[in-house]
Records
---
Amino acid sequence: MSFNRRQFLTSAAAVSAASLLSFEGASAADPIAVASLLDLSGGLDIYGKPMIDAMTLAVEEANAAGGLLGRQIKLINYDTQSSMQLYTQFAQQAALKDKVAVAMGGITSASREVIRPVFDRFKTLYFYNTQYEGGVCDRDQFETGVTPAQTVEKLVPFAMKKWGKKVYVVAADYNYGQITSQWVKKYTLENGGSVSAIEFFPLDVTNFSSTIAKIQAAKPDFVWSALVGGAHISFYRQWAAAGMNKSIPMASTTFGVGNEQIVLSPSECNGMLVCYNYFESVKNAANTAFLAAFHKRFGADYPNVTELAMGSYQGFKLWAEAVKKAQSVDRMKVIEALETGISIDAPSGKVTIDPPTHHCILDVHIAEVKDKKFNLLEDFAQQKPSDTAAVCNLIKNPTDNQQYVIKI
């Protein structure tokens, strides 16, 4: 049998097409890889472990419902161990070796800012599911956590009305604490109050005796805490041991996201005010179903589902909805789907992507710590990320890629 040139080319093309179809068929059967970069160990594991549990449940629920686009989802957990070096290393591994469709992770803003450039460079979609100081503007990234305009702006006037107008701020010494303390100052001044002092502490500090003495001397109406991590729990213990919690109350936008209210005794933290998107006591059908499923999976004695855990759960759900809408896991197609304003009825309430900022519109609640639980005091429906919206519009400026920082 002989072939002329035209017959050979036609035959080769047919073989190539068949091979391609065969490859695509195999590829379509492969799991969709999703990365989780969180601390299972290290100084911030009090935050990371519940976040990983919530992500695990979200993935298992999706797989039980048939997966996405007919494919199962493979969750790859990288234990970043509260190490910036490991965050960078695992971000590269997720993008280049494991070729994940989306990466979800980072706890501190510092960890976010070391992995964000990696994912930008290697064109990997990234979800940051943690409450933070606001201002990040990056088309490859989506933020599901609350920002100061959604929490600090609500809690400052509430606390001032309840306790007085003079505040003393203690905060973790990195992006979140530094920038959030400026938002506290801004909203305090706007509501006719004053800030006695702002003090910053590295994440490994455990001795706060000198600061407690300074606060005693300053005599503020209340203390604002933006402390972070296991080491900083020492502040609350030392504060109570000095009897200060009986004379000067406290508000915080970090307390409880690591279940500090369970680690501490009621006498050490009762009466503190906090403000978040999610509490277990939020009443709606989605939350009832979620808590039943969560406790079935992780045990009826699971201590408390945190704000950060819910952020992780909701982040995955938003991405999954966008994949369904895009009918693809392609990064740009999913981004464009998210930018239509994807919305879900989540356990915390309605959560909607704000297209210009890639942040979320969501409900927030002020609550009081009482006997290891949170009692809801006031609700604020569908709060927009107005702080970030004031400086970021990725629809008009899709190439913008920076973090804007408040200046007072």
---
Amino acid sequence: MNCEKIVQNQLDFYNAHNLEGFISTYSDDITIYNLIDNTVMLKGKETLKEKYYERFEVLKVHAELVNRIVIGNKVIDHEHVTGLISDEIVKAVAIYEIEDSLIKRVWFLFE
């Protein structure tokens, strides 16, 4: 499966609030970083599941893809996310790194 398809599946599951599908696109040892200072925001699939449960079940988040760039095993998405902050659109950039057909690392930048 190609990298772009993996990330698109992840985005589709995100917008459908399908937690099990969303989690299935990630490696067991997924690490998510803040792009600004490279600090770890989240590590491990179980932590990912816990964090996104609220986003899906309570906040009902939605991400609109604005632009996508694919370079090798990296997929860079520019998104407009609703639901994270009441009545606001959060502009985000996510850099997904794919290994063994799963998302292994993600770097986020938020405006």
---
Amino acid sequence: MLPLIDIVFLLLVFFIYAMLSMAVHHGLPVDLPQSGSAALETEVAISVTIQAGAGNIRIFLDESPVTLEQLTGELRRKSTDTQSPEVQIFADKTIPYQELFRVLDAVQNSGLKKISLQAEQGTNQP
């Protein structure tokens, strides 16, 4: 009976780990900054990814490339599908601060108010 209990707990741990590794992420891979208070987001949201390029930035809306001028209109179009969705911004840590604020302004101009900046979970370094 004891080996059966061990196997059941092993399977339980395996399935829990498998569920955590299947977290939905609609953004593209970027080098996120670290934060000690970062947590895993499980809510469905619109993702805006900002990648650093050679002298400029690239913006993606749910993995589709958009320009900064198109971003507000595309967010308005996507926000009509659901009631007040959250916008998760995945910004490369090397992009200029001013470029991040230009994207934040475009998101706010679309009428969406739930905005979160994403970070990797890490330690707080002084």
